[in-house]
Design a protein that fits this description.
Jelly Rolls, seven-stranded antiparallel sheet, mainly beta, 2 domains, RmlC_Cupin_sf
């Protein structure tokens, strides 16, 4: 399995809305999206059985969301609950990039979206657009800061979506596992990650896929601070510790 996948917007079409699949798991579908000036996304639509999240990486998106209009800037999160009509356009100068997450992925052979009429409204009414910088954060480990962009408390019951900032030299996390899938998307800097018996150094626009039960640890060796998006899919139940510490070491023995 490839634990690290690189979003490469330069390989996508330069004259239209285009997207690159990064991870298609049982728990979620993640794509990187590129939209140049003047592009339009899909016609107005909704997703009947999937919540959707955007995180704007660069540029700006003009978003119509259940009849409300937003000018969404880089560094913003968008939550679109299942059944909510929406449409994206890109009238601003420059190129827009965003991460698109669907929870859960649509079943094979089922249409990705349902067309929505111009005046159609729907969904539970919990959609939102928020600038990550406006969301309070906390230090969860020395030099390791976290902001919660979406979780069950904000209406997103299928994931916990977070923004992490790790200072250079922070001790990071020791070996541990999760009962859920965890994914990182690197925004800035570099993150050193040990995944079972493999070491990777993830940098800007890398998606790191950590399936449930896989031992891993991470740290920022520098230079400078590192920031990444975090997806926990599904979000752990209330009162359940998300991390389980483990002792991990390769023995060198082979059984083949």
């Amino acid at each position: 399995m490839e634990f690290v996948r690189r979003f490469e917007p330069g390989r996508l079409a330069g004259d239209r809305f285009d997207h690159q699949p990064l991870a298609d798991l049982e728990s979620c579908l993640i794509e990187g999206v590129r939209a140049p000036h003047g592009a339009v996304g899909f016609d107005r639509h909704s997703h009947d059985a999937a919540d959707q999240l955007y995180y704007i990486l660069d540029g700006r998106m003009s978003l119509e969301l259940n009849g409300d209009h937003y000018d969404v800037e880089a560094g913003s999160v968008v939550f679109i609950p299942a059944g909510t009509p929406h449409r994206n356009e890109y009238p601003h100068s420059g190129t827009e990039l965003h991460l698109d997450v669907m929870l859960p992925p649509p079943p094979r052979g089922v249409p990705l979206a349902t067309p929505a009429a111009p005046d159609e409204r729907g969904g539970p009414g919990t959609a939102y657009v928020r600038a990550a910088a406006d969301i309070p954060g906390k230090e969860v480990l020395p030099g390791f800061h976290m902001r919660v962009l979406a979780d069950r408390d904000t209406g997103s019951g299928r994931t916990s979506f977070r923004l992490a900032t790790v200072e250079e030299g922070s001790p990071g996390t020791p070996w541990h596992i999760h009962d859920f899938d965890q994914l990182y998307f690197i925004l800035d800097g570099a993150l050193d990650i040990d995944i079972a018996g493999r070491h990777v150094r993830a940098t800007r626009h890398d998606l790191v896929v950590l399936p449930a039960g896989v031992p891993h640890r991470n740290r920022n060796s520098g230079p400078g601070p590192e920031s990444h998006l975090v997806l926990l899919v599904p979000e752990p139940a209330r009162g359940v510790t998300p991390d389980q510490g483990v002792d991990f070491a390769l023995t060198g023995r082979s059984f083949g």
